[in-house]
Design brief:
Largest sheet: 6 strands, antiparallel
Strand content: 15-25%
CATH class of the largest domain: Alpha Beta
CATH architecture of the largest domain: 2-Layer Sandwich
Strand order of the largest sheet: 6-5-4-9-8-7
CATH topology of the largest domain: Beta-Lactamase
Distance between the termini: 60 Å
Number of strands: 9
Radius of gyration: 21 Å
Helix content: 40-55%
Number of domains: 2
CATH superfamily of the largest domain: GAF domain
Length: 257
């Protein structure tokens, strides 16, 4: 392996570790990557020396690995340096105090929505979302707000791919999703009911950067049974209010109509 190629291969191995697959054996990594077992072992040894992976104590004799603490440390540095999160967090806390449902900050990464920040509700029955969780752009209010901000060509390219249904309420029809996108562009908010999880509901609005582009979505989410029509209207109003404050802090100047 050349030096550059070795680094790329080592970094690719890290991508196979997920929340659903936190511990992976040597044989499985070889199968997933297509690299020879001996090469995978050498790469893992190098990653282990740097603290990027560690041998799992639970399966120590079977040469199974998990992500190391060094990645967490680097990730926290990235997290601390994200201006959007720093700006949004105080407003998110205020918003949660006013509506007492989960408040979420979501950004786009390729064809996915990533939940980068969240404030949990104080209520007994509440929706829990882990930071770093990913969802497709076409399903869920937060992702669809981000989708609506893309160029039409990009949207069509994404929707031409096979779309996974997470529940029987997940929209996978190109026509239905476009109808929702046009609603978002006109009304500046999105609502989803049970599209990613049963009995859950999410309301999201866009956050803009200094160029006027949608940089993130701000959402409120909770159990469907609490989301009455009066509450939905109130949440939309409050979400717009706080998204506007965040956007202003990011340099966005709203044009007067």
């Amino acid at each position: 392996m050349s030096g550059d190629n070795t680094v790329i291969k080592a970094l690719k191995l890290l991508n196979y570790f997920t929340t659903d697959r936190p511990i992976i054996g040597l044989n499985e990594l070889s199968r997933l990557s297509g690299y020879p077992k001996a090469s995978v072992y050498r790469l893992l040894c190098a990653l282990e020396k740097c603290g990027f992976v560690t041998r799992s104590k639970e399966y120590d004799s079977d040469r199974r690995y998990q992500l190391g603490i060094k990645l967490f440390e680097l990730g926290m540095q990235v997290y601390e340096n994200i201006e959007l999160n720093k700006v949004a967090l105080p407003f998110m806390k205020e918003l949660k105090d006013q509506i007492n449902e989960a408040i979420q900050l979501v950004v786009r990464d390729g064809d996915e929505a990533v939940y980068t920040e969240k404030i949990d509700s104080d209520q007994v029955f509440r929706l829990y979302t882990a930071k770093g969780r990913r969802a497709p752009l076409y399903a869920g209010a937060s992702g669809r707000v981000l989708l609506a901000g893309l160029a039409d060509e990009k949207i069509n390219s994404l929707l031409d791919k096979p779309l996974k249904k997470f529940t029987d309420k997940t929209p996978v029809s190109k026509e239905e999703i476009w109808e929702k996108i046009l609603f978002i562009r006109k009304n500046k908010f999105s609502i989803s009911k049970e599209e990613l999880w049963p009995t859950s509901m999410e309301i999201a609005v866009p956050i803009y950067d200094q160029t006027g582009s949608i940089i993130a979505s701000l959402s409120a989410a909770g159990p469907l049974f609490r989301m009455t029509e009066d509450k939905i209207n109130f949440f939309v109003k409050k979400l717009h209010q706080y998204a506007s404050l965040i956007s202003h802090q990011l340099g966005f100047i709203e044009k007067k109509r």
